[in-house]
Amino acid sequence: MNDAAQINKKVIFALFLIHFIGDFFQSFIRPMLPVLADKFSLNLTQVGMITGIATFMAFLIQPFFGYLADRYRTRVVLLIGSFVGAICIPLVGIAPYFGIVLLLIGMGSISSAIYHPTAAGMVSAYAGRRTGLSMSIFGLGGTLGFTLGPIVFAGYITLWGLQRLPYLTLLGLAVFMLLFVLIPSSDNKGPTQKDFLGSLRENIGEVWKPVLMIWAIAFSRAFVEQTVLTFIPILTASEGHSLVSVGGMLSLFTVGGSVSAIVCGHLVDRIGFKPVYFFSFALSPPCILLFIHGSGWRLYPFAFLSGFLLLATLFPALALAQKIAPKGRSLVSSIVMGLALGTAGILMPLAGMMADAFGIRRVLSCIVLVPLAALVLIYHLPEPGDSV
User: Fold this and answer.
1) Distance CA 359, CA 370 (A)
2) What is the mean pLDDT of residues 205-213?
3) What is the C-alpha to C-alpha distance for residues 176 and 155, in angstroms, rounded to an integer?
């Protein structure tokens, strides 16, 4: 077996580590919301602004970095992307004003837009014949980061307080030094097109209709996800749940999504994409309603089940988009995931205004029904191999 067919374990581990440490610090933002709301006396519109800016900067500009990732393999960009969030997000703990909070979270979230498409685009280059395994390992890094992050944040803040959060940057510095050794130099490869619009035409011009449909379905899922993750911490904290309890719910939601991603990743190979989409979008609304209106210990299993059902199509959506537009895998992935989540994030201040006016639980109960409307689009969703 030649070297090109063998998995480069060192590089795949480095990409796993980038995904882990980046999402670890990014996951602090949601459990931080009740603390910031109390510290700065924020209304729900302002809470939505925090999530909106974080999501906008982390995801909406991803297509640009996805375009660059298809052109280059830039070591410096990956190193910067892995460390900026580890600096800026912990500094929120000593931010004196709400405006500084927004600035730090926005700057810290840009790192997510940098490393996600860039690192994902590198996986196949170093995976050899084990692309599926390598992509799963890379995805596991982000899952672990989002699972452990809220628990670590909640425990840390409970024990030592928000003002000592910047000390956690030392963890990011240690990982940065390790990545400096592990990440290989740029391979200086690029596509035939030299501009962003040219790359769009070359990579998805012939399949823009199915890509747009996949994006619209992904947006409807992302809008519900972002709304739930933004306002459930505020709702549960206001009803007496501790910060550790809130962090535990968020972690269970993420764990549920990671489990379903693995399960559904296997299912789409056996039964196709559309049955998995129907399963997720039809069953997630009633389950999330039970989560929103639950109480006591029931919140925890419903948090897991809600994440399991709602996030079931997250990675299958990427796989479907890459199969339909294989020429620009990083670019189309950033459109389906990054652009969908970023667009959803822009709407969070509006969702916050509605929650201020009508109440969190009532607004959430309406928004979680959005996936039912997307069932019409799913009916027309193409399977790989269909004529488009």
Assistant:
1) 18
2) 81
3) 24
Q: Which of 356, 108, 97, 375 is nearest to 234 (CA)?
A: 356
- The helix, strand and coil proportions of the chain, stated in percent and rounded to the nearest 5, come to 85, 0, 15
Rounded distance, CA 232 to CA 221, Å?
16
- The whole-angstrom distance between residue 185's C-alpha and the CA centroid of its chain comes to 27
State the virtual CA torsion across 251, 255, 257, 262 in degrees, nearest 10. Answer: 160
144-155 pLDDT, tens digit each: 888 888 889 989
Neighbouring C-beta atoms of residue 330, cutoff 10 Å = 27
State pTM to two decimals: 0.75
Q: Could you report the per-residue pLDDT of 77-103, keeping only the tens digit for each?
A: 778 777 888 999 999 999 999 999 999
- Assess contact for 53 and 240: CB atoms under 8 A: no
Q: How many residues does the chain have?
A: 388
Measure the CA–CA gap between 112 and 118, rounded to whole angstroms: 10
Confidence check: pLDDT of 111 > 70: yes
Contact in structure between 286 and 308 (CB atoms under 8 Å)? no
DSSP string covering 300-352, please? HHHHHHHHHHHTTTHHHHHHHHHHH-GGGHHHHHIIIIIIHHHHHHHTHHHHH
Within 10 Å of residue 32's Cβ, how many Cβ atoms?
Answer: 26
Rounded Cα–Cα distance for residues 174 and 62 (Å): 26
State residue 69's pLDDT score. 62
Six-digit token string for 22: 């980046």
Q: How far apart are CA 388 and CA 380, in angstroms?
A: 11
Contact predicate 74/122, CB 8 Å: no
Do residues 169 and 25 lie in contact, with contact meaning Cβ atoms separated by under 8 Å? no
Lowest-pLDDT range of 10-19, 55-64, 122-131: 122-131
Distances (CA, A) of 40 to 25, 46, 246, 356: 21, 10, 19, 16
CA atoms of 356 and 130, how far apart (whole Å): 49
Q: Is the pLDDT of residue 129 over 60?
A: yes
* Higher-confidence position of 73 and 94: 94
Nearest to 258 by CA among 19, 93, 10: 19
pLDDT tens, residue by residue, 266-323: 777 778 888 989 999 999 999 999 999 988 888 999 999 999 999 888 777 777 777 7
